Amino acid sequence: MKAIKIGILGLGTVGSGVVKLLQDNAHKITNITGCELKVKTAVVRNVNAHRNVDLTGIELTNDFTKLLNDDEIEIVVEVMGTVDTAREYIKRLLQAKKHVVTANKDLIALHGPELSELAKENKCDLFYEASVAGGIPILRTIVNSFAADQVESVLGIVNGTTNFILTQMTQNGLSYAAALKLAQEKGFAEADPTNDVTGKDAAYKMIILTQFAFGKDITLDEVKLAGIDGIQLEDIKEAAQLGYTLKLLGIAKLINGKLAVSVGPVLVNNSRPLAAIQNENNAVLVTGKAVGETMFYGPGAGELPTANSVLSDIIAVTKDIVLQTTGSRFNDYSQKIEFAKANDIVYPYYLSLLTPDKAGQMLKLTEIMTQANASFKVIKQTGAANGDARISIVTHAMSEAQLNEITEKINNLAEMQLLAAYKVLEEEK
Amino acid sequence: MKAIKIGILGLGTVGSGVVKLLQDNAHKITNITGCELKVKTAVVRNVNAHRNVDLTGIELTNDFTKLLNDDEIEIVVEVMGTVDTAREYIKRLLQAKKHVVTANKDLIALHGPELSELAKENKCDLFYEASVAGGIPILRTIVNSFAADQVESVLGIVNGTTNFILTQMTQNGLSYAAALKLAQEKGFAEADPTNDVTGKDAAYKMIILTQFAFGKDITLDEVKLAGIDGIQLEDIKEAAQLGYTLKLLGIAKLINGKLAVSVGPVLVNNSRPLAAIQNENNAVLVTGKAVGETMFYGPGAGELPTANSVLSDIIAVTKDIVLQTTGSRFNDYSQKIEFAKANDIVYPYYLSLLTPDKAGQMLKLTEIMTQANASFKVIKQTGAANGDARISIVTHAMSEAQLNEITEKINNLAEMQLLAAYKVLEEEK
What we know:
In chain A, the strands form three sheets. In chain A, strands 7, 8, 9, 10, 11, 12, 14, 15, 16 and 18 form a ten-stranded mixed sheet that branches. In chain A, strands 3-2-1-4-5-6 form a six-stranded parallel sheet, with helices on both faces. Helices cover 37% and strands 28% of the residues of chain A. The first copy, chain A, is elongated. The longest helix of chain A is centred in the C-terminal third of the chain and has 21 residues, at 303-323. Chain A is of the alpha/beta class and 429 residues long. Chain A folds into three domains: 2-134 and 303-323, 3-Layer(aba) Sandwich (Rossmann fold), CATH 3.40.50; 147-299, 2-Layer Sandwich (Dihydrodipicolinate Reductase, domain 2); 346-425, Alpha-Beta Plaits (2-Layer Sandwich), CATH 3.30.70.260. Chains A and B meet through helix 1, helix 2, helix 6, strand 12 and helix 12 of A and helix 1, helix 2, helix 6, strand 12 and helix 12 of B. Chains A, B: InterPro entries: ACT-like_dom_sf, ACT_dom, Asp/hSer_DH_NAD-bd, HDH, HDH_cat, HDH_CS, NAD(P)-bd_dom_sf. Chains A, B: Residues 350-429 form the ACT domain. Chains A, B: Pathway: Amino-acid biosynthesis; L-methionine biosynthesis via de novo pathway; L-homoserine from L-aspartate: step 3/3; Amino-acid biosynthesis; L-threonine biosynthesis; L-threonine from L-aspartate: step 3/5. Chains A, B: Its EC number is 1.1.1.3. Chains A, B: NADP(+) binds at residues 9-16.
C-alpha cells in the first residue's frame, strides 16, 4: 500500500484536530484512498509545550527547513496562521513540489491568486476548504455542483463570533459589550475581536466565495464593509417587533450582470431559514439561475469541524496523487465582470432616527425621502429619553445612491440624528 | 478544443432541462472544462412530439442502437425512467465503454451495486447525483467532505410531494385528500401517488444515502417503512399544539455501531431548522462525529434543479475524460456493518388513542406503559365525538421492542384504539 507522509505547520487547535482525525479515522481513509496517510513532521514554535493529542511517531521541530527539505513529505498542512510568514513558507513548499492544504483565510483572501498560480506552475495542489465557514464544505460544493449553473448570489452568515454576539443580544437582551464579553469567555471571540466585529473576517471569506462563485478576484477595498461594533440593542428589539432578525451578512450578488459585494448588518425577515441560524453556526445561501435557492448550514469554526475540512482537502490531494492529476486549480472558473454602481445596487432599508419630539420633524423627514424619490413600507414613532422621539422606518427598495442622498440630507439637519441604516432581506418571493 | 458528444435517453422534463442548460451555459462549461459539450443524439419514443426546447443540431431517433453504436458519443444521460429497460440499456452502454449519468433513483436503489461494478470493469464513470434530493448536491458532498469523518446519521426530508402535502395540511388545515388533490393540480404529485405517499420513493433515496454515508448496500425490505397515507389532520393539529411539526423523514442512523434505516412520519420539534422546511423543498441533515450537525437545503425536484445535478455529473465525467481518470466508483466507501435490533433502536414517541370517555381507561393505559417500563413526557386528554376521549402522549425515549409491546397490548383492549404512533425528534442538545 502506498504510504503518504504529511507535514504540519502549527499544532494549535486545528493542527491537533488534524492529527486526531487522521488517527481516529485511519481505517476509513485507507478504505477510500487506498493509501496510508501519516503525519511525519510538525513544525512548532515550542517543541516542549504540552499538547492534548497523541504525537507518537511524529517529529516535532522548530526548524521549517527540516520539513521543507524532507523529500518523503508530499503534503503539507499550514495551520500556523499569520500572513507574511505563511505566504513565504507556502511559496517555498510549492517550489519544492509539495502539495499544500491551508485553513488560512486571511492569506488566501490577500494572496490566493498568486499562490494558486505558483501551485499550478509546480503541478501542485493548493486547497483551502477550511478557510471559509469551518465545517461547511461550501467551496468544493460551488466548484462541483454549480459548475454548469450561473450563480446569482452567494450570501450568508460566515462569521461565528458576530453571529454569537447578535444571537445573545437578540435572545437574551444582552448589550453589545456584555455579549462580546460572553463570547470571549466562551472562546468564540479573541481577546482583540477587531477583525471579527468590524466585519473584516467576513469580508475575507466573501473575497474567497466571490472568486469561487463568480470567477473574479477582488480585494478588501472592493467590499463595502460595515461591522457590528456600533449595533444598538434598541435596533435589534425594534427589528424583532417588525418581524426581522439582525444578522451580519456577507452578500455577493450579480445585479444586471454586474457584481456587488458587501458585509454589514442586515435585517432578515423571520420567515427565512437564515433568520434562525443561531450562535456560532454559519450558513451560506447559494442561488443559482437553474437550481434556485440552496442553503448549506453547519458549525462555522471549532477544532474538529475545521480539521474535518482540512482532512477533506488532504484526501482530495491524495486521490490526485494516486491518479497523477495534481496541479489543477481548486477553482478554475474566471470571468471578466464589472462592479455595479451605487445607482444599480437596490435594497429595502431599515433606518432609525432620533429627533426632538416636536411638530414638523416628520414633515422634514418625509420631504427628504420624497425628494430622493424613496418611499416607506413601515414608519413608526415611539417616545425616547429626554423628550426625544425615535423613528423607525422600513423603506421600499431604493438604490445606494438614493440612500446616500437621504443620509447626507439628514446629517445636515441640526435636530435629527440617523442612528442606523441597514439593508433589509425580505421574505422569499 | 476537445469536443465531447453526449447522448440522451428521454426528452421529458429533466432531459429538456439538460439540453437547455448545456445551451445556456456553454461558455462557462467550456471555461471550466476546456471542452465543448454537445448533445448529438436523443432517443425518444415519439420523434414528432412537440418539445419546449431548441433541438437544432440534435438527432432525434427511437432507435436505441443508433446511439449505442455511435463511437463519437462518449457520455450518455439516462432520464427516460423505468427500471428494467433502463437497466438493460445502461448495461449495454457501459459494455460499449460509454460513461453514464442517470437521475433514476429506483434503478440505482435496486441495481446500483451491479451497475457500479460493471462501470468499474469497463473503466467507465457512472454518476447519479440527481437521483437523491433533486437540486441538492448531497451525494458528492458526502463523498468529498465526509470522507475523513464518521457519519453518525443522515436524516431528512427527501420527498417533495409528501412534504408539500404535509405543509398544506399543517399551514392551511387541509385534509389529507384535499392536500393530495392540490399537489396533483400543481404537478407536485403524480396521478398515481402511491410511491410517494407510502414512503417508497423516500426509502429508495435512503438506500442510496445509506450506501454513501455508511458504505453499506441495503435493500428495500431492510428499510422500516411507513407512509403518510394514514395521517389524520387531528394529529397534525395536536402536534402543533405540543410544539412539533409532522414531517415524513428518512433516517439512517448508527446505534452503538449498528445501522437502523427507516422512513415514516416524525414529529419534529419546532426549534429545529428541519421543522421549517416547507412545501416541495428537501433538506438533508448529515451529522458527523467530527464536524457535528450540517444541513443541506434546496429544491427537491423540478426541471432545472434536477437538470443542474445531471450537469454537475456530466462535468465531473468530462474532467475525468480529460485527465484520463474515468472508472472510479462514485462512492468508494464500503464497510461491513450489522443492523440494529428492536431493543437498540430508541426514540421518544407520539401516541394518539381513542377511547370511551369513562372511568378506568387511563388506568389501563398507564398499566400497559408501566409494564413495558415506558414513561410519559406529556399526556393530554380531550373530548372527541360520540362520547369518546382522545388521548395524546409524548413518551420519553423507549425502544422499538417496548413500543411493539405497548402497541400489541393496546390493540388487545376492546375499547381502546391506537390511532397513531410516530417517532419524535426533540430539540438539539
